[in-house]
Amino acid sequence: MRFFPYERPYENQQEAMDRIANALSRGQDVLFEGACGTGKTLSSLVPALEVARQQGKTVVITTNVHQQMRQFVAEARAIAREEDIRAIVFKGKGSMCHIDVGYEECQALRDNTRALVDAERDRSQLERRQRDLLAESRDGDAGAADARAAVMDELESVEDRLADLEEANVCDYYRNNLTGDTDDFFAWLYDDVRTPEEIYEYAEREGFCGYELLKEGIEGVDLVVCNYHHLLDSTIRQQFFRWLGRDPEDVIAVFDEAHNVEDAAREHATRTCSERTLESALDELEGADDPRAEDAANVIRAFYDALVETYEDSFGFGDRESVGETWEDVPIANEDRRDDLTLAFLKRYSGRGIGDDLEAAAKLGRELDEQYEEAYREGETATRAECQTLQSAAFVSAWMDEGAAEGLYPVVSVTRDAGTDEVYGRAELYTCLPRQVTGQLFEEVSATVLMSATIQPFDVTEDVLGLSDPVTMAYGLQFPAENRQTFAVETPPLFASDRDDADVQETVTGTIHDAVRMTPGNTLAFFPNYGEASRYAERLERLSSATVYLDEPGESVEAVRQSFVADDDAILCTSLWGTLAEGVSFDGDDAQTVLVVGVPYPHLDDRAEAVQEAYDAAFDGTETGWRYAVEIPTIRKTRQALGRVIRSPEDVGVRALLDARYSRSAKSDLGRYSVNGTFPHEEREELVDIDPEKLKFAMLNFYGGHDAYDGDPPTP
């Protein structure tokens, strides 16, 4: 591959690139698993760029992890040094706006500003034309006088238009884009791979709108680096491809950390409407002088009252007082009938018809929205109001039409306002089946590469995301096998019911302590949740001479990480579901040993149950839901955590899973509770079953054999 920026690829990397290139050239999707630190990005990006150049397409590489975005920029810069490519790093308007306005306001400002600049250009041209005609008429050209009179009439009309526009809201930054010389900006932009932060600073310094310049400069480029939502949100995707100047079939999409696409797709597809939106809609309708307002208010008020009634009826003694500042679900689903909110809504509503009233609300809402747009354009208001009636009507219509559809789960949630201490609720249509989002995307684009260190089992990813016969490939750690040891430590299974058992805690604490003592440096420990991390951090502080760091919710993760890696004899306790479990590297001496304590199943709430049921129904199997929705994502998380160490061929380290459910030998005893079989074959082969009391000896032998200890080794 001519794009490859380094002299020598990792083992198997050339093979992977060739296979990916062949698949993309045929328009096939690719599922690509490569172990952490083994060059997945370049292995995918290089052939994608090669095929795109041959076929006249654009490559879009996307992630939802900030550290990976920085890595993409580094890789793109390395390629750009070797090949003449134009690459853009694209970020949303919210983080690049110089005057901090919302999307609707920005759109109105942009339209106003363009209209103003166009009118000023028209005035300038007309003034020049009338001067020329005046000179011609003075030279005796009779027709010039008549032509000048017509020009003067047109000029007067433009002056009137300008007078109106000068009173309207405009954006000075965007105005400079339209009137200034931006050639130097685009020369600078394409001279290297610029980050959004660099673009913002350049534009701010020169008085330009960097976001609009970026949109203008993205057309026809070879490579775009962006966030998931530019592809997963169908509305944004259409605009994004339009800015690219590409039809979907002219785009090759590369998804990094693709094991996260499932949850991200759900997030982008889920629709919500809060009690406050409904309240604002009712206030809006009360002030509307329109005969349709009464019908619109009738249906929205019924839904509002039903929402409040539903969550209020769910409260038992003390429940309202215990509501916190995060959203908490209220169960409303029923097995044999519509959900409680819908039933309460139907009971409360009285009118000529829900459908007719919602249609009236939607039509009135669109008209009100147009009035708000016009008022902001004309400078009559300082902000661009959003029509709450339109939003409310659209949501209630979706709730009634789609609330019982396959793969959608109706939810009511409550939260507490920190400022007013008020409890309020929201309704939500939760999307259980990600393929309802991703399936359309994969059909539209030319081809995709979904890459991750933990994307297996391939058949599950294929089913869940709606892929059709993708090419699959997996490459394990390419680093020397003798530099790592992976143990399945047969400590007691940390079932939720056994976590408070004193003997279990004693055994687990002792095993962690042994691992820390035998590690010639730092140890990472991942637990099923923050509570367990805190429990064992406290126990280790009383027992261990190593410094104990605890990652806690609400605290700065980066501050804890930096303190930990600056140490040389420490343990960091955190949740496997926290931000340190993936996308964060602990290279070299940052950490030598990583422990995963317990099988960290997520909290199984009603949403999780709904996803399991949706998978059972979609894929015809009573065990499919549990496997697809719970067990496999949990083991993927575990595998991600194990990948935080051993990031280069020189790294030496131990990876240990502390729970008998991971061991091969316990499969017959634990049956369906065993998770050993959920790991890919090559990783199962690396797992060495070991008794807890023997772990310290095995680690001593391993690290001692690599001369990893400074001075005398620790005493077992």
**How much strand content do the residues show?**
5-15%
Number of helices: 28
**N-to-C terminal Cα separation, in Å?**
51 Å
Largest sheet: 7 strands, parallel
Shape: globular
Binned, the helix content reads 40-55%
Structural class: alpha/beta
Q: Mean pLDDT, nearest integer?
A: 90
Number of strands: 18
Task: Give a description of the structure.
The chain has 716 residues and is α/β, with parallel strands linked by helices. The chain is 51% helix and 13% strand. The strands form three sheets. A seven-stranded parallel β-sheet has the order 3-4-2-5-10-1-11, with helices on both faces. A seven-stranded parallel β-sheet has the order 14-15-13-16-17-12-18, sandwiched between helices. α23 (557-566) links the parallel β14 and β15 (570-575). α21 runs parallel beside α28. The mean pLDDT is 90.
Topology of helices and strands:
Layout: H1 13-25, E1 30-34, H2 40-55, E2 58-63, H3 66-82, E3 87-89, H4 103-138, H5 142-165, H6 172-179, H7 183-191, H8 196-206, H9 210-217, E4 223-227, H10 229-232, H11 234-244, E5 251-255, H12 261-269, E6 271-274, H13 275-286, H14 292-314, H15 319-322, E7 328-330, H16 340-348, H17 354-377, H18 388-402, E8 408-416, E9 423-431, H19 435-444, E10 447-452, H20 458-465, E11 471-475, E12 484-489, H21 502-518, E13 523-527, H22 530-543, E14 547-550, H23 557-566, E15 570-575, E16 593-597, H24 606-619, H25 624-642, E17 653-658, H26 667-670, H27 681-686, E18 687-690, H28 695-705
Parallel strand pairs: 1-10, 1-11, 2-4, 2-5, 3-4, 5-10, 12-17, 12-18, 13-15, 13-16, 14-15, 16-17
Antiparallel strand pairs: 6-9, 7-8, 8-9
Helix pairs in contact: 1-2, 4-5, 4-6, 4-17, 13-14, 13-18, 14-16, 14-17, 17-18, 21-22, 21-28, 24-25
